[in-house]
Amino acid sequence: MNITSIACPGHEQVIRVEDSLSALTGFIAIHSTRLGPAAGGLRMRPYDTEDAALEDVLRLSRGMTFKNAAADLPLGGGKAVIIGDARAKTRAQLVAFARAIDGLRGRYWTAEDMGVDPGDMAVMASVTPYVAGLPDGAFSTGDPSPVTARGIFHAIRTTARYRFGSPLLEGRHVAVQGLGQVGWHLSKLLRAAGARLTVADIDAERAEWAGQSFGAVVVAPDRILAVEADILAPCAIGAVLNAQTIPALRVQAVAGGANNQLAAEADGAALHARGILYAPDYVANAGGIINIATEILKIRDRRRFVSDRLTALDATLETIFKHAAERDVGPDRVADEIVAAKMQGAEAA
Ligand code: NAD
Predict the structure, then answer these.
(1) Does residue 333 share a domain with residue 200?
(2) Which residues contact 155 (CB under 8 A, 6 or more apart)?
(3) Residues 16 and 93 reside in one and the same domain
(4) 98 with 170, same domain?
(5) Same structural domain, 170 and 213
(6) What angle (nearest 5°) sits at the alpha carbon of residue 236, between those of residues 235 and 242?
(7) Could you tell me if residue 135 is inside a domain?
(8) Among 66, 132, 117, 152, which Cα is nearest to 292's?
């Protein structure tokens, strides 16, 4: 196995992992360990180029620093990616990648992300202890997406309270982009709360199935971002809020689960200028890592920890909205400032 360090300004450590025997190429990025060991999932995707994979892991690991800090977890930010089709992944690749993680000696903890499931985590845990989201064993938490969806549901209610004066979702129209692990669980919660749903997924069968399961209107993937609704919940890919899509949005608020929804910093200001209330993604979708944290931190009373942290996260979102309204700036800017202050506090301490 070949491990190469890559100098990336702003990141503490980035390595490229190559194992010719298992045809594995991937990256591990540790953005910050200032608040604790870096934690963030492993994603497997057929990136077009190595540069695209590196760019993704750098953005996502930085996002994990923000997410973990916003959730008040004693964890830093890290992320890992493997380049390849997740449907063709092999045990040998997972074992080789786990050896690379083990070599970081606990500076980085991994868990599931897109293309990786609890079974894959179990394979990796046979090589290294720095794996969470395991299907069984002491402190195991399995698939984080139901708790992620729970956190997003809370965030949508809080967003509704700020935007419409009531957290109740009965009759509210929510457009959900992406019906994977997170979008599916979220749609179920929204439906149970009486929301009206319009949904889309590039997997047409899945979209149809969601339409039937949740009484949702199904639209083509290229139409979901322009659907007229109360709230848009992006739950698929990143960078969906950008210079092309923002002018076409016909919603009053955006609150969803996808990571890195804003393509650029200016897009937060563009949403604010349009009067669209944006729940910062790393606050709205921190439920999953809160759940995973109970495994890393070996928390005995997981239910209580998760509930308390989700409640605190909601309070943080309220504070963000309040300060943003007072200062007439986008909530994303306030959220970034809150995290920056926490990081500085940790450094001073
Ligand atoms: P997933 O792979 O299970 O689901 C993604 C879904 O989006 C798939 O059904 C896919 O077909 C669909 N999709 C992809 N591109 C699309 C497009 N252009 N239009 C419509 N649908 C599209 O992934 P997931 O675990 O549900 O995660 C969804 C998002 O939430 C990702 O951005 C992920 O990083 C983020 N997230 C997930 C978790 C978690 O606990 N799983 C936690 C935090 C953040």
Answers:
(1) yes
(2) 255, 279, 283, 284, 313, 314, 317
(3) yes
(4) no
(5) yes
(6) 95
(7) no
(8) 132
Distance from the alpha carbon of residue 341 to the mean position of ligand 1, in angstroms: 30
State both tokens at 270.
């563009």
Q: Are residues 105 and 173 in the same domain?
A: no
Q: Is residue 137 part of a domain?
A: no
**Ligand 1: does its nearest atom lie under 6 Å from the Cβ of 288?**
yes
pLDDT in tens, 69-79: 999 999 999 99
For the stretch 64-116, pLDDT in tens is 999 999 999 999 999 999 999 999 999 999 999 999 999 999 999 999 998 99
Neighbouring CB atoms inside 10 A of 76's CB total 27
**303 part of a folded domain:** no
Query: What atom of ligand 1 comes closest to residue 200's alpha carbon?
Result: 20
Buried b (16+ CB within 10 A) or exposed e, 302-341: beebbeebbeebbebbeebbebbeeeeebbbbbbbebbee
Residues 232 and 86 in one domain: no
Strand 24-32 relative to strand 13-19, pairing: antiparallel
Give the pTM.
Answer: 0.95
Q: Is the pLDDT of residue 166 over 80?
A: yes
Residue 71 lies in a domain: no
CATH of the domain at 178: 3.40.50.720
CATH of the domain at 26: 3.40.50.10860
Pocket-testing residue among 57, 73, 202, ligand 1, by greatest number of atoms within 8 A of Cβ:
202
Tokens of 145: 């997406």
Domain tally for the chain? 2
Q: Closest Cα to atom 20, ligand 1: which residue?
A: 201
| Range of the structural domain that residue 335 is part of | 145-286+314-341
Instruction: Name the residue at shortest CA distance from atom 31 of ligand 1.
Output: 258
Active site residue 79: yes
**Nearest atom of ligand 1 to the alpha carbon of 147:** 40
Task: Give the DSSP H/E element, type plus range, for residue 196.
Answer: strand 196-200
How many Cβ atoms from other residues are within 10 Å of residue 65's Cβ?
28
b/e burial code for range 5-39 (CB count within 10 A of at least 16 → b): eeebeebbbbbbbebeebebbbbbbbbbbbbbbbb
